[in-house]
Amino acid sequence: MEDVAAADTMVFSGWFIAIVIGALAGWLAGKMVAGGGFGFLGNTVLGIGGAILANWALPLIGIDFGAGFFGSVISAAIGAAVVLLLIRIVKRV
Question: How many other β-carbons are positioned within 10 Å of the β-carbon of residue 1?
Answer without folding.
Answer: 5
